[in-house]
Design brief:
Length: 591
């Protein structure tokens, strides 16, 4: 450990003498891309081999009762691992990355570089109905953060390397460098210029190249365009986009609701029991819910979509078109519950793969209805478009959705229907829910950093850094004479008034006292309570800075008091905020 620390110190000293920060960033973006690519490949293979070992004796023509037990066992092992070894919350990986950027100056704990790989392997390998992408994004971003911290790089450079880790993770797990780069911009909402886009490109290209070298050149999903894009199908792609947008809303709200119910259960083992049992029953009834669900997408893209009912109690109905359509919709609805139950019970994973699963199912569902009277629309093309639409709706990332689906299937010939469906889905959900599933909790807490630079800087500003606590206070029952003595020792023209319990009562302004200051006859007759006024607004200690700025703008005040549970904490002045805002803006925008 000491040797590695000494080596890092020597490298750091050498780079300070020979390289500027941007040159270091370009070199480290390659390193981060390489490491995040390795992490993605390792996770992908671990999940594949664990799932293969557990299901190798399963049959496709009858029920497999181990489906009832495996998911719960996986969640229990994950909970024990996190509780006794990790001892930290590693759920909701992408949200944690966003939280670190907004609240912790981009600093992420070192264990995040590997713990999510282990926990998600167990959860998904045992059938948890979630995806591996969020854990590997957390892993890649943590690699970027910790490397930046090792070299004492600035906040701005650290956030770029966090983005490089995320881009590398997506590029590596999907062999999709364009989508990885766009993901960092759209989902992590990094404020990028051309100079900082280059590191993202390097990281994504490095990771994808590593994946091609180690895993071969095959696409993530095998797909051949057998029916070219037909403009006559545009109305149906719009219909599909609307359906995806509405279902995205249902998925987002349903997921948050079910997870919220699980959070109310205090006992973690009771959560495992309830969630594991629910998940086991759902997967037993609908085995297509097992794990990431990519096998079902492969079946749909191979024109054998009815095979999604294999291994289930309903396998005998897979050739009945009407029952199959009903089963598709039921599976989609149950998938919402299965995903939320997995994470709510303590499993580790994300909603990336479930979103692709639901999108493929949505395209299959809509095309199956349209094709009841004949072969009106190409089902496989609609499955691809549905995946793009659902991603655009759930993640609010239409560009990532379009290029990811094109890259993982080789379906670049269908860019126009992908664009139509993704755009329609995005336009459908945004009036209903303006934030993506990753951003919604942060937005509710006022901690979301967006592409709006003003809001981003206000989010980064923290209340405690702008509070002035050194002002002289005066007691509410003090005399004018006592107040004058305090004024003589102060350099300010405002004096907070408190009672004997430190409760805030009001403020005294020097301009309101000046006319009495030299009339000593009033020194013992007038009281502070006769001179104080209530400020036009009061700020709470836990208030967000955008709300604070609104109070300053609405009240026209230059100074406002900060109060917590009626207790006086300090004062905030507009000039202090402006100075802090300017400093944060420079730090946030520096290249």
């Amino acid at each position: 450990m000491e040797k590695s620390a000494h080596l890092i110190e020597k490298i750091r000293d050498w780079r300070l003498k020979h390289l500027n920060e941007h040159e270091v960033l370009l070199i480290l973006s390659f390193v981060v891309g390489l490491l995040s690519g390795f992490a993605a490949i390792i996770l992908k293979n671990l999940i594949h081999y664990l799932g293969k070992v557990l299901t190798q004796n399963f049959t496709s023509y009858s029920e497999n009762y181990l489906y009832l037990a495996y998911p719960g066992i996986g969640i229990l092992i994950t909970v024990l691992y996190v509780r006794f070894f990790v001892k930290d919350d590693i759920g909701h990986g992408i949200t944690k990355v966003l939280e670190s950027i907004a609240n912790n100056k981009g600093v992420m704990r070192a264990h995040n570089m590997f713990t999510s790989i282990i926990s998600s392997t167990i959860t998904i390998g045992f059938g948890g109905s979630v995806g591996a992408e969020a854990p590997v994004v957390l892993t890649g971003s943590s690699i970027g953060s910790n490397i930046a911290r090792s070299f004492n790089l600035s906040y701005r450079t650290m956030t770029v390397l966090i983005g490089c880790g995320a881009a590398g993770a997506i590029a590596g797990i999907f062999k999709a460098p364009l989508a990885g780069m766009l993901f960092a911009i759209e989902v992590l909402m990094l404020d990028m210029t051309m100079a900082s886009l280059l590191p993202l490109m390097i990281s994504a290209a490095t990771s994808a190249s590593l994946a091609y070298f180690l895993m071969g050149s095959a696409h993530h999903f095998e797909f051949q365009i057998d029916k070219a894009y037909n403009v006559s199908n545009i109305p149906w792609y719009i219909v599909l986009g609307i359906f995806c947008g509405l279902f995205s809303y249902l998925f987002t709200k349903g997921n948050l609701y079910v997870e919220g119910r699980f959070r109310k259960i205090a006992n973690p083992y009771l959560k495992v029991l309830i969630g594991g049992t629910m998940l086991g029953v759902m997967i037993f009834l609908f085995p297509s819910l097992w794990g990431e669900g990519y096998l079902s997408i492969d079946q749909i893209l191979s024109d054998v979509g009815s095979n999604i009912l294999n291994n289930s109690l309903f396998v005998g109905f897979k050739d009945d078109k009407f029952i199959l359509i009903g089963m598709i919709l039921v599976i989609m609805l149950v998938k919402i519950l299965a995903t939320a139950a997995t994470t709510g019970a303590g499993g580790s994973g994300g909603i990336f793969a479930p979103t692709l699963f639901l999108g493929g199912m949505a395209g299959f569902f809509v095309s199956s209805i349209l094709n009841l009277d004949g072969n009106l629309v190409p089902a496989r093309n609609f499955a691809l478009a549905g995946m793009a639409g659902m991603m655009a709706g759930v993640m609010h990332s239409p560009m990532t959705a379009i290029f990811l689906i094109a890259e993982i299937t080789g379906g670049f010939g269908l860019l126009i229907p992908l664009m139509i469906t993704a755009a329609t889905a995005y336009l459908t959900i945004t009036p209903l829910e303006p934030h993506s599933i990753y951003h919604i909790r942060l937005a509710q807490r006022g901690e979301l950093i967006t592409h709006n630079k003003d809001k981003a800087v206000l989010t980064l500003l923290k209340m405690r850094t702008v509070i002035e606590t050194d002002l002289l206070t005066v007691k509410v029952n003090s005399t004018l004479g006592e107040l004058v003595r305090i004024i003589s020792r102060s350099k300010r023209n405002i004096f907070p008034v408190i009672d004997h319990d430190e409760n805030f009562c009001g403020v005294v302004l020097l301009d309101d006292v000046r006319q009495f200051m030299f009339n000593k006859e009033k020194y013992n007759k007038m009281r502070v309570k006769d001179l104080m006024i209530m400020p036009p607004a009061i700020i709470s200690l836990d208030e967000k800075m955008d709300s604070v700025m609104k109070k300053f703008n609405d009240s026209g005040a230059w100074n406002l008091p900060v109060v917590s549970e009626k207790k006086y904490i300090g004062l905030i002045s507009k000039s202090t905020i402006f100075n802090a805002y300017r400093s944060e803006l420079v730090r946030f925008s520096e290249e």
